Amino acid sequence: MARREKDEAALQFIEEVTSNCDEEQRKVLAQILSRNEDTEYLKRYGVKGCTDPETFKSKVPVVAYEDIQPDIQRIVNGDFSPILCAQPITDFLTSSGTSAGERKLLPTTAEEMDRRQLLYSLLMPVMNQY
Hints:
Blueprint: H1 3-18, H2 21-35, H3 40-44, H4 53-59, H5 65-76, E1 91-99, E2 102-108, H6 110-129
Antiparallel strand pairs: 1-2
């Protein structure tokens, strides 16, 4: 497939997934909550079986990195139980900024890395369009 055709396919994909953002976000949240319902984190807040945004917002508080740092540290120390995520943590990304002089560790999964790669693959078609 020529570059122009690849760019057109990427732009069409962007159009499809952004044409109904609200519904797409609801669908993604439901998938995340369903997949991770047995994690320690979601069990703390009684989210099991709830997949709608309203229930999620009412049960799970907005937290700072420091609030989940003990959970992240357990993962760093080799705890493979489903603490924050049902999928295995495959990598740790680090933040560019610091908190108290230390970079933040961001646990990630293979699936998340694939999503990042997809996002990066969409940048050039958008830039080429302009």
